[in-house]
Amino acid sequence: QVQLVESGGGLVQPGGSLRLSCTDSRGTFSLYTMGWFRQAPGKERESVATISWAGRSTDYADSVKGRFTISRDNAKNTVYLQMNSLKPDDTAVYYCAPMVAGKPLSAYWGQGTQVTVSS
Are 72 and 80 in contact (CB under 8 A)? Predict the structure, then answer.
């Protein structure tokens, strides 16, 4: 079964940094656009960043532009999300997913990784 595993979350103070990883155990999605999403308590899941299959094209939500960087290493079947200058509003469970026609393939949501930004 194809599985995406997110990791790298944790508790960080405002202004701090974290790097999230999303590993595709079988390399199934190396030719897919991949996206990072997040869901805060009581809110809908939202897109954070996307990256094309070769990594040449990226897109970011306005709320994270200039602070977050998405990247991928297809040789390692891994997509990363470098998060800098974190704010309390960034607190959420972060998920990755392959994307088709601009939408995430929800059948492949992993367990997510919790990011908590708090002093």
Answer: yes
- The whole-chain average pLDDT of the chain stands at 95
Dig out the tokens for 38 from the structure.
């997040």
pLDDT tens-place string over residues 47-99 = 999 999 999 999 999 999 999 999 999 999 999 999 999 999 999 999 999 99
Q: Is 95 exposed, middle or buried (0-12, 13-18, 19+ CB in 10 A)?
A: buried
55 secondary structure, DSSP code: S
Instruction: Name the residue with tokens 């405002």.
Output: 14
- Cα angle: 46, vertex 34, 36; to 5 degrees: 30
Beta-bridged to residue 19, according to DSSP, are 82
Q: Are strands 68-73 and 58-60 parallel, antiparallel or unpaired?
A: unpaired
Alpha carbon distance 56, 35 (integer Å) = 14
